[in-house]
Amino acid sequence: MVYSLTYRRPASSKASTLSVGSGDSDGKKSYDAESTSGGSQMSHGIPDALSFERIISGGTCPPCTVREFLNYLKYIELAAENLQFYLWFRDYCKRFDALPDREKALAPAWTLEQAEAESHAQARKAKPAPEAAVIFKGTDFADGRRAPDGDLTPYGGDSTPNPQTPSVHSKFENVDNSSEATLSDWQRSTTTATTIDPARAAEAAFESAGEKVQPFAVQPYREEITRIIAIYIAENGPRQLNLSSRERNVLLRALAYTTHPSAFRDVITTIEWSLRRQAHPNFIRWTICNGNRPRVIFARGLGIFLIVAGIVIGILLDLSSVGRGWRVFSALAFLIGISTMIAAYKGMCVVLHGMHHRHLRPWELFASDDEPQLQEIFKESPESLQGNSFEDEPWVAKYDKRNVVRKVFDREVWIEEPAMRQIQDTIFLQSLLGAFVITCLFEAVFLAVPKGKFF
Q: Where is the composition biased (Basic and acidic residues) (predicted)?
C-alpha cells in the first residue's frame, strides 16, 4: 500500500508528490520526492549527479554526502533542524508503511479537506480587526499577500508565509565574507535530556493550539510523535522548526487526531522547499571551495604578489635596452597571478586543485571514532533532545589555538565525488581563460611602449 501526499509548490514549479512505499528488498528506503526535471530545476546550474535527491538517497561521494550536507547546515548556515526533521520523516514514513494493516487502521490519514478546514479556522482566528485591515491594506501585512517575485508562497492557500531565516555563516569556513558571523538569535542552546520532559512539552504545545483532548495513546508511534513535538514543534524546543503560528497550530491539531504521516503534509512541504531552493544550492557552492579561509586568503595574496611582480618586470624591461621579445616574460607572472586570483575568488586554491585535494573542515580535523552514526541523528535517541549549538564542542577551542601557518597547510584529503572534480576543473579552465585574456591586454600595453634604453 502506498500513501501519496500531494502538495503545491510555488507557481514557478509543478506539483510534486511524496510517496511512502514498502521499501526495497535490500532495505533501502522506498521514498521518492519527485519534482520538475528530477529536482534539477530547483537548483539552477547544479548537475544531476549532485541533485538534492541523489545526495539524500546516498548516491554521492565525499564531500557531497548527507553527512557533509548536515554538517554544513549545522556549522555554517546554523540551520540543521530542517534536514534533521526531513531525514526523520523519510524514515518514519518507511516504518509506518511497514506496520500491519490493523495498526495502520488506528491512525487514519489526515485528508486535504481536514487540513484546509483547519487552516481556514486558524485564519479566521488570526483575522485582524477591520480597522487594522484598512491600515495594512496594500502592505506586506495584508491578508493573502504574495511573495516579492509574484509567485504564491509554498505554504498554500491564504496562510501567512513563513519567512525563511537568512543564512548566517560561521567564522570558521566563510571564505567569501571577511566578517566573523555569530550565532543567530533563534539558535537554540544545547538542552540535555535531563532538562526536558517530552510528555509535558507536548502537552503544553497541544494546549497552546487549543487542543484539550489528549491524543489516542493506542495509535502507532504515539510516544515517538510526542518526542518529535517536544523537539521540533513546541515553542522553545531544542530544535524548533521555523514555522508560523498558524502552521504550528494546524500541525498540532492534526497530530492530536492521528499519527499518520499525512499529518505532516504542509510542514514537510515547507521544509523540502527550503532545502531544495536554499540549503542545497548553497551547500554545493560552499563545497566547491577546496581550501579553508586562511588558505584562500594566502592564495589571494600570492596572486596579488605575482601580478605586481609582472607589472614590475614589464616596466623594467620597457626601461631597458633589450629587445621587445623579452617583455613577454612578464606574461608568465601575469598568467599565474591572475588565474590564481580568479580561482581564489571562487574559494579555490589552484595548488590543491592540481592534486584534486581539499582541506579537512575544522570539525573533521578533530573527529572522534565514537561520533554517532548518521542514522542515529534522525532516529529517537538521547542526542535528539539536544540543540544544534556547537560552541561547546571540543574542536572549536582546539581549532582556535592553531596558528595561521598551520591552518594554511592543514591536512588534505582526496575529493572522491567525480561531479565535484568536474565542476572544479571547469572553474579552473575558466580562470585560465580569463587570465589569458587579461594577460594579453597587459602585454599589448608593454609591447607598445618604446625602448627606454636607460640601462
A: 140-149
Confidence of residue 26 (pLDDT cuts 50, 70, 90): very low
Cα–Cα distance measured from residue 347 to residue 293, given in angstroms and rounded to the nearest whole number: 8
pLDDT value of residue 444: 87
- Grid cell, residue 75, equals 556549522
CA separation, residue 271 to residues 154, 274, 293, 402, 408 (Å): 10, 5, 30, 37, 37
- Separation between Cα atoms, residue 312 and residue 305, nearest integer Å: 10
pTM listed for this prediction: 0.72
When pLDDT is averaged across residues 302-317 and rounded to a whole number, the result is 91
For 359, the 3-state DSSP assignment is strand
H/E segment holding residue 358: strand 357-359
- Name the residue ranges covered by the structural domains of the chain: 3-288, 293-360+410-448
DSSP states of 248-303: HHHHHHHHHH--SGGGGHHHHHHHHHHIIIIIHHHHHHHHH--S-HHHHHHHHHHH
In this prediction, residues 125-129 reach a mean pLDDT of: 53
